[in-house]
């Protein structure tokens, strides 16, 4: 699903902006993880580049059979390792569930 590319709570976001509603039916066994852009945009690694969606997706694929709490712990460990000595530039939030 694609989301609206519009900030939330910023001065340039119109106060009357109407975000599009998206529905995605879930089936038993589906897993959902919502991650803020602060996680994907965190610089680190050897070249000081963003963590990015692909690295997160690869980690989650590798951890897919584990309980959600353990997957969250694995994401936190990977994020801290990636970040290294880089400062945290944005808030980082994620939550997930298995249906």
Keywords:
single chain; 99 residues; alpha+beta; two-stranded antiparallel sheet; two-stranded antiparallel ribbon; 3 helices; 31% helix; 14% strand
How do the helices and strands line up, and which of them pair or pack?
Blueprint: E1 31-35, H1 37-40, E2 43-44, E3 49-50, H2 52-62, H3 68-83, E4 94-98
Antiparallel strand pairs: 1-4, 2-3
Describe the fold and architecture.
The protein has 99 residues and is an alpha+beta fold. Strand 2 and strand 3 form a beta hairpin. The mean pLDDT is 90. The strands form two sheets. It has a two-stranded antiparallel ribbon. The chain has a two-stranded antiparallel sheet with strand order 2-3.
Helix share of residues? 25-40%
The major beta sheet can be summarized as: 2 strands, antiparallel
Spatial arrangement of strands, main beta sheet: 1-4
Specify the oligomeric state: single chain
Shape: flat
Distance between the termini: 18 Å
Low-confidence sequence ranges: none
Number of helices: 3
What percent of residues are in strands? 5-15%
Helix/strand order? EHEEHHE
């Amino acid at each position: 699903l694609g989301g609206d590319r519009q900030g939330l709570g910023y001065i340039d976001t119109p106060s009357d902006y109407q975000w599009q509603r998206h529905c995605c039916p879930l089936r038993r066994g589906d897993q959902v993880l919502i991650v803020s852009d602060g996680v994907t945009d965190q610089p680190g690694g050897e070249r000081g580049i963003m963590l990015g969606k692909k690295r997160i997706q690869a980690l989650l694929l590798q951890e897919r059979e584990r309980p959600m709490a353990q997957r969250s712990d694995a994401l936190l460990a990977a994020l801290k390792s990636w970040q290294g000595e880089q400062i945290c530039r944005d808030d980082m939030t994620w939550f997930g569930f298995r249906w």
